[in-house]
Amino acid sequence: MSKKVIEFISDIEFIANIDENKDCIMNQSTHQDAAETNIDNPNGLWFNIDVPKNHGLKQGEKIRIIIEKTD
User: Domain-by-domain residue ranges, the chain?
Assistant: First the structure.
């Protein structure tokens, strides 16, 4: 069983090369102040998530972030 904590949509601001196996997709705002507050991301939340290589994501694309607490 899981319980949703937060769900929001945000642009990928930057993709960092971590190592040969993973990248890090993120939105930490251009000026490190706050992510844009809009209808998709009303709390102006940042994200920083490691993903396996060959993910196919590109800078500027929108993604949905869902955080759930699980047993």
Answer: 2-70
Per-residue DSSP letters for the chain?
-EEEEEEEEEE--EEEE-SSSEEEEEE--TTSS-PPPSSSSTT---EEEEEES-----TT-EEEEEEEEE-
User: What are the pLDDT digits (tens) for 8-62?
Assistant: 999 999 999 999 999 999 998 665 666 678 888 888 888 999 999 999 999 999 9
pTM of the predicted model over 0.85: no
Q: Report the length, in residues, of the chain.
A: 71
Please give the single-letter amino acid code of residue 11: D
Tokens of 37: 């507050």
Show the tokens assigned to 54: 């060959």
